Amino acid sequence: MAAGAMGKAYDATWGRFFAAYYDRALKASEENGLGDMRRALLADARGRVVEIGAGTGTNLDLYGAEVEDLTLIEPDPHMGARLRDRLAARTHAVPARLVAASAETIPFDDDTFDTAVATLVLCTVPDPVAAITELARVVRPGGHLLFIEHVRSDDPKTARWQDRLEKPWRFLADGCHCNRDTEANLSASAFQVESIDHGALPKSMPIVRPLILGSAHLPP
Length: 220
Ligand SMILES: C[S@@+](CC[C@H](N)C(=O)[O-])C[C@H]1O[C@@H](n2cnc3c(N)ncnc32)[C@H](O)[C@@H]1O
Hints:
By secondary structure, the protein is an alpha/beta fold. It is about 40% helix and about 25% strand. It is built from 5 helices and 7 strands. The protein has a 7-stranded mixed β-sheet with strand order 3-2-1-4-5-7-6. The chain starts with a helix and ends with a strand. The model is unreliable at about 1-10 (pLDDT under 50). Bound molecules: S-adenosylmethionine. The site of S-adenosylmethionine has 21 residues, from loops.
């Protein structure tokens, strides 16, 4: 088998395993604070909402009555299959659809959404700057971006370990870059960061522990 084809077969197998294992891998984090962070953040979601990299649909049941319509962007077929099952099992009424696409090219017109949501995803998208730029395009002026992201550490020693372990971690964690400076990427974007908490991903390894949680908006 050619190296490229072998890589593809490996990716497919690993991607299937990662999707199957994802909820269990995050269970301790969710139960020890991450779930509460998600709930508090998503209480601010309003109107037409787009969530990028929705994964297995962990956020799905946390959207409240102020959400009119939910668009879930997820390019990975294994994650998408789990998300589709969760959507089918759901009992509450917010209309929701899964769109198999990448955050870097969201197949919607400018100014379509009131709120964008990114949780634990700007670490993984291949081009986070393009993804944030694309969110700024599809969110209307005055609309919001809500985010929880694990990020590059402010502590130089931890950041050095994040740089050293970035490659093996990326391999193990299905494309996740543990050393991304997502706060800098947000600050350099069209979004204006209006609140940001610096915290820790509960029950996690030090290289993925530094966390930012907050909201940003586009100028009206
Ligand atoms: C670590 S998981 C996070 C899942 C979920 N957002 C959560 O909070 O648990 C990262 C997700 O980003 C997705 N992803 C990877 N590349 C992407 C891209 N270019 N655009 C959108 N999502 C992407 C992956 O398939 C995966 O579902």
